[in-house]
Every structure is written in C-alpha cells, then in structure tokens.
C-alpha cells in the first residue's frame, strides 16, 4: 500500500508516537507485508525469530519492538507493539468510509456493464466495460474489476483478511488496507468470497473461471486461465500460476505456490508447494503414481496382519 503522498520518518513516528532511528527526513512511501515490500515501505516485526528477515528485506523502514543496529540505508521505528502501530497506520491512511448509497458516487462503471438490483458497489470501485454483475453481489471499496467480467449472485469481493494476533484478552485483528483486483474475462460463481489484501492486492488473472462457493484468501495471486471448482478454499498469500486446475473441495494452505498447468483432484489437501505440469490428489496432496502406491500398500495391511496371526 503506497501512501497518497510521501511522508518523512519523523511524520510517521509522530502518527504512532514511536521513537525513530535514522534521518528525520528519511522518505517513507508506503507500508506492506514482508512478502510484497519494496524500497520506501514500512514492514513490521514483533518476534525475534523474524528480526533478521525483516531487517534484510527490501523494506527500508522497519517497525520493530527492540532497539537493534540499523542497517545501512534504512531507518527504524521503535514500538512496544508493532502490530498495534501497523494497524494505526492502516487506519490513518485507509480509514473506513461508510457509504449511504447502493452504488457509490465515486464508483466508475464502464459502458455496457449491467448491475442487477440489490448489488452494493463501494467507494472508489472501478468496473470495466460489458460486465454483468448479478443481484446481491457486494463489491467493497477500492476493488478493481476489468472488462467482460461476470459475477454471480451473492459473491463478496473485498472482505477483510483472516489475520489475527492472539493476545491474553482474545484475538486482535490486523486491519486490511489492500484491494481485490479482477482482470478481464473472469467469471466468478455464486456465493464466492474473495478477501482483499492486507496491504497489497488479491489478484485474479485474465480468463480465470471460478465455480460457486469458492473462498480466496488475502493477498493470493491467481494467474491466467485457471479453473477452480466448487467449495475450494484457498488461504492467504498463495500463488497459483497460469492454467492450473483445482477440482472441487480442494484445500490449500497459506504461503505456497502451485506451478503452471498443475491439476489437483477433488478433496485434496495441499500443504506444500506443487511443481507445475503434474497431477496431484490426496491429503497431503502428492503425485498420482506416489498416491496409488500408498493406497496399494494400505490395501495389503489386512492380508499382512492375517499372515502374522497364522504364524503365531
């Protein structure tokens, strides 16, 4: 998430009431999670296990809960609670703005696009030409939809990331300031839910087709011409490359990559990255030959048990 205007390190420190290490005029251009940071971004870290990763990342401003040596060319923001202060910055730069209309006055809707009754279109939404948005769709603020997109009834685009920090008093939510971006010629089935990015974009690539009742988590990036069948659940920060096929009720854990043209069969559980150009099934998902061998071995267990009994 880039700020509307560049800020200085001192200005950001004042917003969150934090101590800073570095030039008070050090440029701050935005804030992002560690997997999408670029120069000028703030990244937060609140656990020693991840200090080195954050300090060595592309981010040039590190919001951290301990005074450490500041890397050359970077700056530090020292906070007793970086998670809380990251939320403060999200609220400051991307505050929630309520809407009093079903279709916001700030929405831009392309020529030939049809929006059926009872659909909500939030602030600063952009919808391209010749789209068809069916009834009872909710399109949250800042969503970007390309041309020739079809969205079926009950779909929700732009809901918050499922991202929480456990505290003694309960779960503390990391606020979402990102977007959903839908490219051209995408179809989205009925009752699908697509979470916006925490600071970046959840992106659905050109020509991808999504069946009913699919969930796509925050900051996930789906490539071109991907097929996703009903009741598939995709966690946050997943990369699904071009022309992947996911059949019904596939579950995918966070932070992994599924390679180009991979096929994952129904009811598979994907717990690690999968190489492209191959077919997978099972939980955890594996190659067809490997899984069939496992099943064959399992079927032999009763016979082996009987053989052992006969020898006793």
Structure description:
It is a single chain. With 312 residues, this protein is of the alpha/beta class. The protein has 2 domains: 2-93, MurE/MurF, N-terminal domain (Udp-n-acetylmuramoylalanyl-d-glutamate--2,6- Diaminopimelate Ligase, Chain: A, domain 1, 3-Layer(aba) Sandwich); 108-291, UDP N-Acetylglucosamine Acyltransferase, domain 1 (3 Solenoid), CATH 2.160.10. Helix content is 15%, strand content 31%. It has 5 helices and 34 strands. The protein has helices spanning 9-16, 51-55, 82-93, 288-299, 301-311; strands at residues 2-8, 19-21, 27-31, 41-45, 61-64, 75-78, 108-109, 114-115, 120-121, 126-127, 132-133, 138-139, 144-145, 150-151, 156-159, 164-167, 170-173, 179-182, 187-188, 193-195, 201-204, 209-210, 215-216, 221-222, 227-228, 233-234, 239-240, 245-246, 251-252, 257-258, 263-264, 269-270, 279-281, 286-287. The strands form 5 sheets. It has a 10-stranded mixed β-sheet. The chain is globular, with a radius of gyration of 23 Å. The mean pLDDT is 95.
The CATH superfamily name of the largest domain is Hexapeptide repeat proteins
The CATH class assignment of the largest domain is Mainly Beta
Number of domains: 2
| Global morphology | globular
Q: Largest beta sheet: what is the strand line-up? A: 8-11-14-19-22-25-28-31-33-34
Low-confidence stretches: none
């Amino acid at each position: 998430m880039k700020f509307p205007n560049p800020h200085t390190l001192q200005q950001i420190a004042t917003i969150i009431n934090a101590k800073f290490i570095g030039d008070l005029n050090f440029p701050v251009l935005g804030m992002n999670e560690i997997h999408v940071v670029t120069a000028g971004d703030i990244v937060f870290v609140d656990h020693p296990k991840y200090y080195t990763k954050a300090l060595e990342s592309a981010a040039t401003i590190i919001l951290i809960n301990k005074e450490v040596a500041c890397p050359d060319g970077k700056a530090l923001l020292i906070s007793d609670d970086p998670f809380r202060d990251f939320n403060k910055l999200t609220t400051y730069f991307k505050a929630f703005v309520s809407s009093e209309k079903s279709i916001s006055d700030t929405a831009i809707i392309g020529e030939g696009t049809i929006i059926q009754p009872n659909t909500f279109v939030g602030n600063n939404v952009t919808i391209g030409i010749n789209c068809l948005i069916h009834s009872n769709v909710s399109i949250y603020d800042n969503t970007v939809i390309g041309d020739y997109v079809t969205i079926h009834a009950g779909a929700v685009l732009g809901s918050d990331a499922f991202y929480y920090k456990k505290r003694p008093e309960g779960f503390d939510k990391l606020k979402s300031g990102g977007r959903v971006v839908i490219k051209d010629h995408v179809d989205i089935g009925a009752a699908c839910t697509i979470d916006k990015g925490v600071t970046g974009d959840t992106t659905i690539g050109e020509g991808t087709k999504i069946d009913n009742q699919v969930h796509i988590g925050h900051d996930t990036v789906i490539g071109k011409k991907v097929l996703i069948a009903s009741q598939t659940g995709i966690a946050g920060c997943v990369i699904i490359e071009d022309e992947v096929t996911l059949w019904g009720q596939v579950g995918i854990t966070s932070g992994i990559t599924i390679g180009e043209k991979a096929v994952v069969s129904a009811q598979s559980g994907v717990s690690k990255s999968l190489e492209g150009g191959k077919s997978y099934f099972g939980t955890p998902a594996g190659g067809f030959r490997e899984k069939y061998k496992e099943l064959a071995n399992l079927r032999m267990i009763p016979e082996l048990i009987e053989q052992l009994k006969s020898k006793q």
